[in-house]
Amino acid sequence: MVALEALGNRVLVKKLKPEEVTPSGIFIPPTAQANKQCIPCIVTHVGPGSRNGSGERMPIDLVPGDEVFASRFAMEDIEIDGEHYNIALEQDILCKITRNGNGK
């Protein structure tokens, strides 16, 4: 088992499996899914944050387990022990997904 630690203002994420059928039952082909520029991911590791001009840490506003959308072309793909991860800078995380109580 390998321990991973995100450094600086980096975030390690795992891509979530894309929806293959819309809620109304329409099938989404893989070719359409491949054209997305924003990828849904789950945060697995968060770095301590970057430093400001006076050397103080500026913490990242994410925690492991958060669901986010990340910029597809700004992430680096890595594989450790057969597990696929992506590394993104904090500014390449576009938004955080917050679900209400009924799962929607």
Ordered list of secondary-structure elements with their pairings:
Elements: E1 10-15, H1 30-33, E2 38-46, E3 50-51, E4 57-58, E5 67-71, E6 76-80, E7 83-89, E8 93-97
Antiparallel strand pairs: 1-2, 1-7, 2-5, 3-4, 5-8, 6-7
- Our count of helices gives 1
Any idea what the CATH architecture is? Roll
Strand content: 35-45%
The strand count comes to 8
**pLDDT < 50 stretches:** none
Give the ordered list of helices and strands.
EHEEEEEEE
The rounded Rg comes to 16 Å
Q: Notable features of this structure?
A:
104 residues, mainly beta, 10 Kd Chaperonin, Protein Cpn10, Chain O, six-stranded antiparallel β-sheet, two-stranded antiparallel sheet, 1 helix, 8 strands, 4% helix, 39% strand
Structure description:
The structure is a single chain. The protein is mainly beta and 104 residues long. It has one domain: GroES chaperonin (10 Kd Chaperonin, Protein Cpn10, Chain O). It is 4% helix and 39% strand. The protein has 1 helix and 8 strands; from the N terminus they run E-H-E-E-E-E-E-E-E. Strands 6-7-1-2-5-8 form a 6-stranded antiparallel β-sheet, with no helix packed on it. A two-stranded antiparallel ribbon has the order 3-4. A hairpin with a 2-residue loop joins strand 6 and strand 7. The longest helix has 4 residues. The N and C termini lie far apart (35 Å).
In short:
The protein is 4% helix and 39% strand. With 104 residues, the chain is mainly beta.
